[in-house]
Amino acid sequence: MKKTLLSFLATALLSALSFGQQKISFEPSEGYTLGTVVGQKEWTVKTDNVPNNNFKVVTGKASDGNNSVEVTSTGNYTENFSFLFKKIPEYNRLSVSADVKLEKLNSSDYYMLSLYYNNNGNYSWAGGFNFMYSGKLYADSDVNFLDLGNWTPEKWYNLRIEIDHVTEKNVKYYLDGQLVHTSTLGPKVVRANDLNFEFDNDGSGFVVDNIIIKDMDQLSVSDISKTQINIFPNPTSNFINIKSNEIIKSVKLYNASGSLIKTENANLSKIDISTFPKGNYLISIETDSGIETKKIIKE
């Protein structure tokens, strides 16, 4: 499954994390500026022929806030993938998520949210999401892979990988908030410490935003067990009621093609969808414990 991969050692650790979690949405408030992301906040690249300026912080193409990183292709395919990456902490129990949007089919292959153990330049692959040029999507690693169906271009996907290095020694894959695969952790992956977004530069690029890195051991048992979000009625025709035992930080509504169509940034208990066409939608609800995505139906 995996193409030949080369990666590169990032030279610095993440800035200090608060409460075992860091969110990266490439906003000015986080210290990011428009233009190449290479060199900002320890982001770097490994590539044969894609200039640094093709890895840009841009505005107006975000899933969260205003900014995101857009990676564009020069169209010069290379067997060795190009990597946008940074070093991450070596947590015993790690959760990493990101929103990604791929440009088009029948062009580049992508490995999104790809996690490695970098042991002094020797890389062991923990896993990632393989968006193939043909339209197939896989949860993939050196241990095994699972067919997740087909992916849609220009659609936002929320990807999450959880790795337990100590107790369960497994890798869990979540697609749009739903657990879709659980795999054994490769024996050489002592601690995942390298986060990559990869493509083969074959005529199409991607956008990445809303990266969340968590130390799951910092989440108390009570936080995990008591976090409950309910939405009702579902199906509905006018309003969705939201009930949560935590403060809601934001609510985002996406249509069936993955486009963000509504954002609410304050604690609320109801969202109006009466003006939207009938069909299927995804509602993404962010609390202090993370992001939960649910499917809703508008009648």
TrEMBL record:
One of its GO terms (biological process) is carbohydrate metabolic process. Keywords: Signal. Residues 231-297 form the Secretion system C-terminal sorting domain. GO terms for molecular function: hydrolase activity, hydrolyzing O-glycosyl compounds. Gene3D superfamilies: 2.60.120.200. The keyword DNA damage does not apply. It comes from the Bacteria. Coiled coil: none annotated. Residues 1-20 form the signal peptide. NCBIfam families: Por_Secre_tail. This is Por secretion system C-terminal sorting domain-containing protein. It comes from Epilithonimonas hungarica.
